[in-house]
Amino acid sequence: MTARRIHVILHLSQLIHSPLVDRSGEQLGRVEDVIVRLAGEGLPPVSGIKARIGGRELYVPTSRIADLERGAIRLSKDKLNLGRFERRPGEVLLREDVLHHKLIDVQGARLVTARDIELDQADGQWRILGIRSSRGSALLQLLGGGRRGDGDIISWDRLEPFVGHVPSSRLRIRSRRLARLHPAQIADLVEAASHEQGEEIIRAIGTDQELEADIFEELDDEHQVEFVAERSDQDAATLIARMETDDAADLIAQLPQERRANVLSLLPGGQRRRVQALLGYNPRTAGGLMSPEFVTVAGAGTVADAITAVRASDCPDEALGTILLVDGAGMLASAVPTLALVRADPEMPLAQLAIDEVQVVRPDAELPEIASLMSDYNLMALPVIGDDGRPIGVVTVDDVLELALPRDWRLRHRASRD
After folding, report:
1. Which distant-in-sequence residues (6+ apart) come within 8 Å of 398 by Cβ?
2. Which of 124-128, 129-133, 391-395 has the lowest mean pLDDT?
3. Has residue 93 got a pLDDT over 90?
4. What CA–CA distance (Å, rounded) separates 30 from 95?
5. Cα distance between residue 258 and residue 262, in whole Å
6. DSSP 88-141
7. What pLDDT is stored for residue 250 in this prediction?
8. What burial letters (b/e) apply to 251-279, b meaning 16+ CB within 10 Å?
9. Which of 330, 357, 362, 384 has the fewest CB atoms inside 10 Å of its own CB, making it the most exposed?
10. Residue 58: which of 46, 48, 67 has the closest Cα?
11. Distance between CA 46 and CA 127 in Å, rounded?
């Protein structure tokens, strides 16, 4: 018969400043902190405590601890190494480095504050079980109340701590866990964090340069500029080159005047020309909102021709909801919803699927006109045409929503979830 594992639950608030006693129960000093190592998977094990004895801070390894219990820590041996405590690489102090600090709740895609830390003992090994993020729950523990399961307990296996502030730490946020989130969720985390914490998140995902660019596209203007400010012009250009053209133009327009021209000159030629064209428009007009990347197909072609063009395109997904049909002179003739192509016979002429009256705007069209047209005609993308009737871009619904919503909409949404 398999022996049942016996679990003992304690909270950091029950240990900090509690007596450190010898085997006979005589107090030797007091507990200052609990030490763990966060490297590796699973629940981090406790490696020892930092204690104060006779005015000296000492390290006590778990091998010399008989019991961790509420209100006291009992030693298994009376002799201690009296050398002063010094951090070793990779060590994290729970009170100093984690308690009352923010952590990333990866599963909830939010930042939480560790009001208390829950420790679990099983088979003689103490590990971090999770944190309490509720102020009330921590207070209950300090007053001696509360049980496991009370309050807002978040399991450690769904958390990522910030360690940039930890002396001698060689750890870093595990990027593969963050990469499971949507770029907009990661951007929300960056915006909710301090500058240093935001930098730590961005550094963690920096090895995936495409993901980094996607996150920058989701950041608000203020944070984009904040996190580009410390980069060289070349590094900024490398990042911006991976962004969608309209987002790249928006970011460059936010840069200080003295940097703007130099960063722009470092972009690849094709993107530089597209960005320069967008910079000539008011950002709240169709010209400033549009993406210059879209798919056009000859109006005399077939469904198969249009599908082939979509497959060969590297346009952003949101710009592919509508395929623009042009005549022999390149002027906009009509449009076809991409969904209609999927449902149609490949040999069907595009003319049979074409929208009877395609809605378009000029580059100087302002937001109310754009929003009204897209709402009235249920459009996901609205073509923008130049004076000669040729398409020069498409405005997509996500860009319209971003301008139409209040500036603090993300903060409100985040607050409603928390």
Report:
1. 318
2. 124-128
3. yes
4. 14
5. 8
6. -TTEEEIIIIITTSEEEETTTTEEEE-SEEEEEEETTEEEEEEEE--HHHHHHH
7. 92
8. bbeebeeeeeeebbebbeeebbebbebbb
9. 357
10. 48
11. 5
Please tell me the predicted confidence (pLDDT) of residue 5: 52
Q: What is the pLDDT of residue 7?
A: 67
- Give the CATH fold of the 289-403 domain: CBS-domain (3.10.580)
Structure tokens at 412: 């409100």
Q: What pLDDT does residue 142 have?
A: 46
Per-residue pLDDT, 388: 93
Backbone angles phi, psi at 61, to 5 degrees: -70, 160
Domain with CATH 3.10.580.10 in the chain: 289-403
Tokens of 232: 């060289």
Rg of the Cα atoms in the chain: 29
Distance CA 360, CA 382 (A): 6
Tokens of 260: 């703007």
| Burial of 225 per CB tally in 10 Å (0-12, 13-18, 19+) | middle
Question: What pLDDT score was predicted for residue 149?
Answer: 42
CA-CA distances (angstroms) from residue 133 to 138, 146, 336?
8, 14, 51
Output the CA angle 91-97-100, nearest 5 degrees: 155
Query: What is the per-residue pLDDT across 46-87, written as a single tens digit (0 to 9) for each?
Result: 999 999 988 889 898 888 888 887 778 888 876 666 677 888
Measured between alpha carbons, how far is residue 113 from residues 116, 284, 409 in Å? 9, 38, 23
User: Amino acid letter at 139?
Assistant: L
174 vs 359, higher pLDDT: 359
Start-to-end Cα distance in the chain: 45
User: β-pairing, 391-396 with 381-385?
Assistant: antiparallel
Query: For the ranges 124-138, 221-235, 241-255, 331-345, which has the lowest average pLDDT?
Result: 124-138
Which amino acid is it at 94? Answer: L
